[in-house]
Structures
1.
Amino acid sequence: MSLTADLERGVVRFGTLTVGAGPVVVIGGAGADARWINLRENHGRVLASESVAAVRAGWRGPVLVEPFSAADLPEIAANAVGAVVGAAWMQDFQLVRAVARLGLPVLVQRAPSATLEEWLAVADYCVAEGNDRVVLCESGSRTHLGGVTLDLALMRAARERSGRPVLADLGGDPGLAAAAIAAGADGLLLPPGSTEREALAVHEAVKIVGAVTRREDPGSLPAARGAIDRVDAALALLLERRAELAGVIQRLKPVGGFAGRDMDRERRLVADMARRAPGLGEDRLASIMNAVIEAGLHLAEERMAADRGRARAE
Ligand SMILES: O=C(O)C(=O)C[C@]1(C(=O)O)C=C[C@@H](O)C=C1
């Protein structure tokens, strides 16, 4: 059994940014892999060239741009690595076709009430214009509460049906990053207005949840090191949590610490782990877990000694 339903994914490259293979990418917000600009926000009153230049002034990485109208397309062709088909006009097929003809990869947001078929049809329009470099971005449905609800099941279905990379637009709730990654999102969209704290939490989810749920097949040394760094981040979190729990156990046992060591229990937990780590196997896991368990016992004994010291001083 695997958490990662190993779905086949296509890969789309926005300039230097690869979506669909490798880590989950973050578009927008502090520390992002790419920025995006929505020219509709200013109702077309600010020139595309000015908006792009403003972002470009502080950012050398990939920029994706959503046009306000066809007049913006030359600027996008010249200065962006990708075009965004916005949720608000996903079915403006004239503009969709013109965007697809730019030859840049296209990010297609889902309109709030669009069905899966309607959404996928937009990708087909791009393909009909000779552009197969399409990623699909779930942007949420309007709900009775007046807000927007991300439909992660629909996002999964879009990936299964189309084989294209899928993104989740976290505009309404950056707290959904972990859920979106676990549901198979290849990337996350953050609104430019998101706080640094929100962006940090999203990047943490990319590392930790991505490490657990996403199998990577890196083809270069930096990519492989990036992937191993994410796994180490998840390991560190789990090792710390494990040490805390081992400490709780030492306090609950009649005889805690090294004096109360239970080798039978250790052998059983190693055997259980070996089922999930058959490559490492029981012998190697036994020495890894010995080090982990001893570190936990040392920490627990240190803390218990400190507590006793404090109690004596009071
Ligand atoms: O389960 C226990 O009895 C523990 O003390 C916890 C733990 C562990 O870290 O997993 C630590 C020492 C024992 O030898 C066995 C297991």
Note: The pocket of prephenic acid is lined by residues 246, 249-250, 253, 261-262, 265-266, 269, 293, 296-297 (CB under 6 Å).
2.
Amino acid sequence: MATIAVLGAGKIGEALLSGLLHAGRKPEELLFTERHPERSAELTGRYGIAGVDVSEAAKRADVLIVAVKPQDIEPVLDELAPLVGPGSLVVSLCAGLPTALYERRLPEGTPVVRVMPNTPMLVNEAMSAVSPGRHATPEHIRVVEELLSSVGKVLEVPESQQDAVTALSGSGPAYFFFLVEAMIDAGILLGLPRAVAEQLIVQSAVGAAKMLAESAEHPVILREAVTSPAGTTINAIRELEKHGVRAALLAAIEAARDRSVELGKAHEED
Ligand SMILES: NC(=O)C1=CN([C@@H]2O[C@H](COP(=O)(O)OP(=O)(O)OC[C@H]3O[C@@H](n4cnc5c(N)ncnc54)[C@H](O)[C@@H]3O)[C@@H](O)[C@H]2O)C=CC1
Ligand SMILES: O=C(O)[C@@H]1CCC=N1
């Protein structure tokens, strides 16, 4: 089985490593690089995966997955440039960074695949979107899709859609956590104990997510089924509409898309 190295084992890097272990990969098939030694020791202790330097990662791994913050990409590209080439496979998980940036900075012909995953990788429920760069072949995409499908669902999209994907599914879990947090607060407002409010809302979220994923029904139909004439739900919906929650979500997701575009532009002059 292919050896995978994650370059930058922070939140998403760890989610990927942990998801791959859950999916049955062995610690020996995985590597990571990490600039903070304490973080490196913590991960090796927790998962039994070796922390290495970039040159060892490039030597031993078939797939190099870049998972540093977009703002930290420059030194990683400098380190990778002498170590990779047309026989390598570089995968970027970085929000906003186009494959063209990697292609400009790495040796001619280096295959690059851009991916936007999300943290539910930790529980094998990731949504990942993949886009090939100029030198990535269908076989490279197959390898990346196989890797990611072991930790969730995978979709191929044109790279021009990746900023929108980042705003939707990359950041998406945060929006749901935010809503759940607010709904738990509402339970507190109504006088429920916090633990009770948490259980009620988290299980409602799990149930609603399962219905969305498993029933063929549109979300509007599912919502209508909860909304009885002159009942309780319609009173709540009226307040949500009055407070512009739908418009707020449209504006929020558009702002996230714009930030993804901006993160990519920061490296245009390289
Ligand atoms: N957190 C999330 O939900 C998602 C994050 N992403 C992308 O994943 C990337 C990482 O995000 P997070 O994990 O949230 O950030 P993070 O800050 O938690 O992780 C980045 C890790 O990279 C390490 N690092 C930085 N420079 C390094 C270098 N030169 N060599 C080795 N290690 C280095 C840092 O010490 C840190 O542990 C970002 O580009 C982000 O856009 C993509 C999808 C979802
Ligand atoms: O907030 C961020 O920039 C990253 C990318 C998508 C989710 N988290």
Note: DSSP finds twelve helices and eight strands in the chain.
